[in-house]
Amino acid sequence: xxxxxxxxxxxxxxxxxxxxxxxxxxxxxxxxxxxxxxxxxxxxxxxxxxxxxxxxxxxxxxxxxxxxxxxxxxxxxxxxxxxxxxxxxxxxxxxxxxxxxxxxxxxxxxxxxxxxxxxxxxxxxxxxxxxxxxxxxxxxxxxxxxxxxxxxxxxxxxxxxxxxxxxxxxxxxxxxxxxxxxxxxxxxxxxxxxxxxxxxxxxxxxxxxxxxxxxxxxxxxxxxxxxxxxxxxxxxxxxxxxxxxxxxxxxxxxxxxxxxxxxxxxxxxxxxxxxxxxxxxxxxxxxxxxxxxxxxxxxxxxx
Length: 303
Ligand code: SF4
Ligand code: SF4
Hints:
There is one protein chain. This protein is α+β, with helices and mostly antiparallel strands. It folds into 2 domains: 2-195, no CATH class; 202-297, no CATH class. It is 48% helix and 15% strand. It is built from 13 helices and 9 strands. It starts with a helix and ends in a 6-residue tail after the last helix. One iron/sulfur cluster is lined by residues 54, 110, 112-113, 118, 120, 124-125, 128.
């Protein structure tokens, strides 16, 4: 019973951290929800608090969030990163990535919020989709992702909880179309959760650089993936290369699988070790340059 309580507390802390950016003044109901748990909620234009949750927040962007937003805005990765992001550290780890750059107004509003609502609604980040439900993944002893759990977030300003509409968590997830985000980010989340599990364990500078660049800029990863060194190192055949060249989503999935492999040696890759090292060096050099440039332009936002 005591062990269960501690496990529950740790898991709630985990989700509190994950949601920190989206929550200003929060009351987190310390209970686990399952996919079939029910809750009352409705958010719609015209509700008294409409868009109040879209300012003064910190939104870490997952790789799939970046992919969706940059496509929505018709930008290249570099354009999107320069115009709409700031470097951020991921709570509870030494990993750096990027978050949405808020406007420099009094409320630090999201650049995409208008009185009529979110202008990128169908491509909004996962954090915005799940709200007011938080999703976590139980950590197994290996640090890999396990079973999902959910909790409800209740903020004082959010009037959606007073509405009559009842959802199950599963219905909410379907309505918010979050499954594809979870699927695409699966390997990335596994890295983040394991990094948090390891807590104060330091990553090498190189691992941090690779994490930053692969998490944020698929164009740079693409430059490396189609070099002869990389192709030899990971023994990519013609068919695999064609798939990666033609389908950006396949490339994104592959890049995150690769990142997990080089960070924690998890996953299934056939590797030529010598060629692998050479291929990795190239990306590390690019990552180093890009991180230096971003740090000079924007201060890192620490938690
Ligand atoms: S109901 Fe909640 S989520 Fe919807 S606009 Fe209001 S504060 Fe935001
Ligand atoms: S992306 Fe859209 S939903 Fe998310 S904070 Fe900005 S305006 Fe609100």
